Request: fold
Amino acid sequence: MNIVILAGSNRKDATSTRLSEFVGRIVAEKGHRAQVFDLYQKPLPFYSPDDEYENTETIVEFQQLMHQSEAIVLATPEYHSSISGVLKNALDHLGQDHFRGKAILSMSSAGGAVGTSSLQQLQSIVRNLHGINSAEWVSIGGAQRNWFAESHTDHEGAGGEVVERIKRVTYSFLELASRIRS
Reply:
């Protein structure tokens, strides 16, 4: 399967982006194609309903990538109990044809213990875009975020329980995506 992972942070070393890269490796280890679209590295212009930016190179690349995906992972930092502005802006550039009938996994990284408010908002957005929310989500916060502050494999450091939980949720998401495709 072709899985797109949308890293929705505007921060250079965001833990939500590191989480996205980690999930991308898990997806690839299971034999699927995982591509991370990092909104820090490829910022999108502000959405305008007047389609002012529709034909910019980055928007065209982004929309094509999302359209060609067979399943999607959305990752966000949690800011003020909400998703990031850059992720919301990116989602505004998309429509139902990018999400309809696809499995979607939502993930967050919060400065506090967990970031469930942003995940609830993502699930609502996914429903409105006719995507199929994965039954579970990933939220890392507090000490769990510390493990993602540095780039490394899951065999380094003290990821322990959080790594196993992320793997379990990712495998469940992949199973859902596979069933939907069949």
Remarks:
- Strands lie at 2-7, 33-38, 71-77, 103-110, 132-133, 138-141.
- The chain has a mean pLDDT of 91.
